[in-house]
Amino acid sequence: MMKALLSTCLLLALLSPGSVHVLGPFSAPTGPAGRLEHLHVKAGYHRPKFSHSLPLQCRFTFNKTGLTYEGNVETTCNFEEDACAANVLRTNINQFQAHLANRCAISRSCHSGHYSFTAADGKFFELKKQCCNTKLCNNEVLSLPDRNLRAENGLQCPACFSKGKKMCKSEKTLNCLENETQCLQYKGAILTGVFEPFYFTFQGCGTDFCSNRRNGIYLVGAGNVSLVLGPEIICYNASPISHQPEHEE
User: Fold this and answer.
1) What is the rounded (10 degree) CA torsion for 70, 76, 82, 88?
2) What are the two backbone dihedrals, phi and then psi, of residue 107, each rounded to the nearest 5 degrees?
3) Any idea of the CA torsion for 49, 51, 54, 55, to the nearest 10 degrees?
4) Which residue among 11, 119, 127, 237 is the one 20 to 30 A from 190 at the CA level?
5) Helical (H) or strand (E) element with 9
6) Which residues have C-beta within 8 Å of that of residue 127, sequence separation ≥ 6?
């Protein structure tokens, strides 16, 4: 466990000499002196205005073995937790994981939206998040659509996937799905609890992960799964499908 913690700390230090920004429901981004930093929210995503007396009460549920809702309990938030969040996450980057989590949050790092990407070899990451600021407001149980039922949107991107830190080379294209209108080129890691970071690279389709990017790095995730996003991620508009003979569904 100590080795895993040291590896995670080293990853964060190597990817950025500045602050670490967290795009998740459980902690706030902090600067070098421990002060809260501001994260800009991209167009199309909504960050509610939070103003209420503390402590706030939120619904709490956490299922890290699947997306089955097993009820919730009321919980009193810590002093710095001024928001509630409902989250659902599904990914198969290093292994299949599905988390359902409703709990207290910090408004500066809670951004409602639907984040997703699809890479080569069927690899994907998908997160849906809702943030609110009133007592027990996070009572909605979020869900993700069946990936097999997601429709193509007429766009395509270069596609590849590889383990490790060397950028993969695209030799095929990928037909994009629904809200994934950006082409992404990514080099980073996914963190799962106290385990060592899983490094990987990919090209593929996705939502716009770049608008919240800073000079440092930030994390996007739910439960104990976080995707590390740094300055090396590239986003650009996907192209219309050109009916090339070789593509990956």
Assistant:
1) -10
2) -60, -35
3) -30
4) 237
5) helix 2-15
6) 87, 88, 89, 90, 114, 115, 116, 220, 221, 222
Q: Tokens for 230, please give them.
A: 């740094």
Distance of alpha carbon 125 from alpha carbon 192, whole angstroms: 13
Q: Give the DSSP per-residue string, 106-146.
A: -GGG--BEEEEEEEGGG-EEEEEEEEE-STT----------
7 burial (CB, 10 Å; 0-12 / 13-18 / 19+) is middle
Beta-strand pair 20-23/217-222:
parallel
CA dihedral 36, 38, 39, 44 (to 10 degrees): 130
Residue 79's closest CA among 57, 61, 54, 48? 54
Contact criterion met (CB below 8 Å) for 118 and 206: yes
Helix or strand holding residue 6 (H, E): helix 2-15
Instruction: Please tell me the predicted confidence (pLDDT) of residue 78.
Output: 92
DSSP code of residue 148: G
* Cβ-based neighbour number of residue 78 at 10 Å: 12
**161-193 burial code (b ≥16 CB/10 A, e <16):** bbeeeeebebeebbbbbebbbbbbbbbbbbbbe
The pair of three-digit structure tokens given for residue 209, joined into one six-digit string: 């992960």
Whole-model pTM: value is 0.72
Between CA 98 and CA 88 the distance in angstroms is: 8
**What is the DSSP code string of 61-95?**
EEESS-S-----EEEEPPTT--EEEEEEEEE-SSS
Which pLDDT does position 39 carry in this prediction?
A: 31
